[in-house]
Amino acid sequence: MADTPDGGESLDIVLDVDLSKRTSELADENLALLDAHGVTAIDVLGSVGSGKTTLIMGMVAALKQRRRIAVIAGDITTRIDAGRIEAEGVPVLQIQTGGACHLDANLVRTALGRLDLDSIDLLIIENVGNLICPAGFPIGAHQRLVVLSVTEGPYMAIKHPVMVRQADVAVINKIDLAEAMEVSVEQLAADVRSVNPEIEVVATCARAGQGIDDVIAALGL
Amino acid sequence: MHDVTAAQQIARQVLVTAQEQGAGRVERISLALGAMTMLDPESLEFWLEQILRGTIAEGAQVRIEVLPLRVRCNACGFEGEAPVPDDPIYHLMPFVPACPECGAQGLEVLGGGECIVESIRVQRAEVGSADG
Ligand SMILES: Nc1nc2c(ncn2[C@@H]2O[C@H](COP(=O)(O)OP(=O)(O)O)[C@@H](O)[C@H]2O)c(=O)[nH]1
Ligand SMILES: [Mg+2]
Ligand SMILES: [Zn+2]
Predict the structure, then answer these.
(1) Do B51 and B8 meet the contact criterion of CB atoms below 8 Å apart?
(2) Measured between alpha carbons, how far is A42 from A69 in angstroms, rounded to an integer?
(3) pLDDT confidence of B94, banded at 50, 70, 90?
(4) Does the interface predicted TM-score (ipTM) exceed 0.90?
(5) What is the mean pLDDT of the segment spanning B92-100?
(6) Is the alpha carbon torsion for A176, A180, A185, A186 positive or negative?
(7) B2–A14: do the CB atoms touch at under 8 Å?
(8) Residue A98: predicted pLDDT
């Protein structure tokens, strides 16, 4: 205790709370909740415009006959992507992060509370379009799918090693544009594997539905 | 950037604790940040000040200690601190740490990701006489 200039009594309170641990604890709690309801969750990451929403629409179209799916759309401020996915006829919950550059476990926990987890068995979560910050924020998903597209240039994998290393499956999207972009899909795939030797790499043209089945197989869905 | 999110979480933690302890004011907030958090101490301090305006922690002094990246190398057995670049680019492009001894990548990270609220110094709500 120490005296303050205005005569009040000061007191030091030790908290010693590691908020980064709290983040992973919350993520673990989300996973436990999903497991308790038999729901598999996939966290889909990638830059804005890489094709996350298009890919998710394709996956939903291919899977909705045999899986009970819901989608969480993380977006900074708009409902555009949520509306696009809803057109596939599955429930979509929008999380507006209000400017935050990633979803976090707490936002996802709130979203899980609003979903009827007993009526689904697959949850696809579109993270905010950003390859940097979400790497530090596990949200509690069973697998992470990272979407890179050839229009982002040839160095995406090398530029984002942390994210690529944390992902289970990497999609190289927009391969229809590879030639025009002068990007080698093989080289990009090799870069991805050099950063993360265990990752599954799938080349897609999500807009045409090409490669979607391979993505589904890579995720074991 | 996520400095804002971190500042919000820290502010919540500080205010809840201060309230539980019946504090009238928060005078000081002591934090420890891992070198790998991608949080910028200056920016974090700025956002904390903004968020705490109008609360009992407005104007509190913010102390930030930076904790080193600590790694274990499975290639050569090195265990200890590894340098983190002091480069603004690092905030845009996370780097992959290499072993300071043998250069190997794929290290086990033992520490450096922390975002710890260590302690707060508060003033009691009912200020007694200064006989402390
Ligand atoms: N040429 C081409 N365009 C694509 C492909 N996949 C998505 N797109 C387009 O890329 C744009 C951004 O896609 P979107 O799914 O919204 O990306 P998101 O921001 O990652 O969700 C849209 O205009 C899509 O039609 C593809 O495989 N090839
Ligand atoms: Mg989208
Ligand atoms: Zn080594």
Answers:
(1) yes
(2) 11
(3) low
(4) no
(5) 70
(6) positive
(7) no
(8) 64
- Judge whether A184 lies within some domain: yes
Digit-coded pLDDT (tens) for A134-193: 666 788 999 999 999 999 988 888 888 878 888 999 999 999 999 999 999 999 999 999
Among the atoms of ligand 1, which is closest to the Cα of residue A57?
A: 15
Give the CATH number of the domain where residue A166 resides.
3.40.50.300
Task: Quote the domain boundaries for residue A73.
Answer: 17-218
Domain-embedded: residue A73: yes
Fold observed for domain B2-124: hypothetical protein PF0899 fold (3.30.2320)
Distance from CA of B131 to the nearest CA of A (A): 8
Mutate to test the pocket of ligand 1, among A79, A183, A207, A210 (most ligand atoms within 8 A of CB): A207
| Model confidence at B87: pLDDT above 70 | no
d(CA A101, CA A45): 12
Distance CA B3, CA B45 (A): 9
Read off the DSSP letter of residue B36: T
**Structure-block tokens of residue B6:** 């971190």
Decide: pTM greater than 0.80: no
CB B111 within 8 A of CB B67: yes
Rounded to 5 degrees, what are φ and ψ at B52? Answer: -85, -5
A85 is a domain residue: yes
- In A97-168 the beta strands, taken as DSSP E runs, fall at 122-126, 143-149
Contact B123 A9 (CB under 8 A): yes
SS3 state of residue B22:
coil
Residues of chain A with confidence (pLDDT) below 50: 1-4
Q: H/E element holding B4?
A: helix B2-20
| Total structural domains within chain A | 1
The answer to whether residue A33 sits within a structural domain is yes
